[in-house]
Amino acid sequence: MAALTAIRDTRTKVGKQPGMRDVALKSGYKVYAGAIVTIHTANGYGRPAFSGANQVPIGVAQKTVDNSSTGTLPGANTDGGLSVPVKSGAVFGPFANDEAPYAVAVAHRGQVCYLLDDQTVSTNSSSHSVAGIVDDVDSEGVWVEIDPIARQS
Q1: 136: part of which helix (H) or strand (E)?
Q2: SS3 (DSSP) at 37
Q3: Distances in Å between the alpha carbon of 37 and those of 13, 18, 105, 106?
Q4: 59 with 93: CB under 8 angstroms?
Q5: How far apart are CA 106 and CA 12, in angstroms?
Q6: pTM, whole model, 2 decimals?
Q7: pLDDT in tens, 9-32
Q8: How do 90-97 and 120-122 pair as beta strands?
Q9: Contacts of 148 (CB under 8 A, 6+ apart)
Q10: Ordered DSSP codes for 19-50
Q11: In a domain, 131, yes or no
């Protein structure tokens, strides 16, 4: 492939809002609306964020989807059998904050924070995946910019 030398007809998918995508879920997981959703690099499927490495934060679930053995929709409990709508490329929150000494503080604005679970962030990078960039910390919690494109830098 080569770089463009003429106009190209690049399209967007019909019906998709900017920053919205459907993420195919790994079997065995239930994602709740408002949860941070990641894609695990070992298998390429989405799941609720967890404390561990090898996750790419995709955004925040816009509805609850149960892809576990208790799920009742056709395709439940199969890899990619169900998808969750996820919004990304924005500041989300407020998320729960880790405890001292790894609590996110106002001084961490503009810095990376890390995932503890699908609703909690931390400054502890040891064996944790990036959640996003700290936008603010207030009495409600931590506000985080989650943008998978920005993560690639």
Answers
A1: strand 130-138
A2: strand
A3: 21, 17, 23, 24
A4: no
A5: 37
A6: 0.86
A7: 766 555 556 688 999 999 999 999
A8: parallel
A9: 56, 57, 58, 59, 88
A10: TEEEEEBPTTEEE-TT-EEEEETTT--EEE-B
A11: yes
- The tokens describing 52, both together, are 């561990």
* pLDDT tens digits, 110-129: 999 999 999 999 999 999 99
Decide if 83 is inside a domain. Answer: yes
Token pair recorded at residue 53: 């490495």
Structurally, the chain folds into a number of domains equal to 1
Enclosing domain of residue 84: 20-152
Note whether residue 76 is domain-resident: yes
Rounded distance, CA 108 to CA 51, Å? 20
- As a whole number of angstroms, the distance between CA 12 and CA 7 comes to 16
At position 83, the amino acid (one-letter code) is S
Asked, for residue 53, whether it belongs to a domain, the answer is yes
